[in-house]
Design a protein that fits this description.
about 210 residues; about 25% strand; Rossmann fold
Length: about 210
């Protein structure tokens, strides 16, 4: 693991603390309130979503491929007394679950970082049960062309300082191209975040019935 990546992991909660207090935590809570039945979170990181999951889920699995993140994730799960939560060491592009295993897949600030969004979304489609949905909250390519060009120029730097994060991915378009229908898509400011990672997109997506 590169030194910069280690620093990013160590400072992750600190980096997001201002955003969480300024409204990001509330956006997480609103999104996760929609989770039902068997839920799977991609790239759960240090577990900032854990406290927001609703009661009554029949299964909650959190995946995280990065060992340092996974260690902190397990500690947070234990601190919150969530004995019902399963933590699995796995990346979004190689989910070790049978087809149709989950009713909800959750992705928050993850699709910016996965090596291949297409591979990750193919896995999401595979593990979703009929009628299941992807719930997502991601920072995305700015719809303003001028600001998007700034993101393109900054992206190589963002990838280094942000643990592999890309600031210019058109994630809603990629979700649609992967065979999903977007539901309730909206854009929000990323609270307390710098302009080159604006805006956030959040919503739900269902697998198209013709696929």
């Amino acid at each position: 693991m590169r030194v910069m990546d280690r620093i990013f992991v160590a400072l992750y909660d600190t980096i997001l603390a201002g955003s969480e207090k300024a409204g990001l935590s509330d956006l997480r809570a609103g999104l996760l309130a929609q989770a039902r039945g068997r839920a799977l979170e991609l790239g759960a990181g240090t577990g900032l979503n854990v406290a927001h999951y609703p009661a009554g889920l029949t299964r909650l699995v959190l995946t995280e491929p990065e060992p340092m993140m996974a260690k902190r994730l397990r500690a947070r799960v234990a601190d919150l007394g969530r004995a019902d939560v399963e933590v699995v060491d796995a990346g979004a592009d190689a989910l070790p679950f049978p087809d149709g295993s989950f009713d909800a897949v959750i992705s928050t600030l993850v699709l910016c970082t996965v090596p291949s969004v297409e591979d990750a979304l193919a896995q999401v489609r595979r593990v979703l049960a009929p009628g299941g949905r992807l719930l997502f909250l991601e920072h995305i390519r700015n719809p303003d062309p001028k600001r998007a060009r700034h993101q393109d120029r900054f992206d190589p730097i963002q990838k280094v300082i942000g643990g592999g994060c890309h600031c210019n991915r058109p994630t809603p378009d990629l979700i649609t191209a992967a065979g999903f229908t977007l539901e309730g898509l909206r854009h929000e400011p990323f609270p307390k975040a710098y302009p080159l990672v604006q805006p956030l997109a959040l919503g739900a997506a269902a697998v198209r019935p013709d696929l």
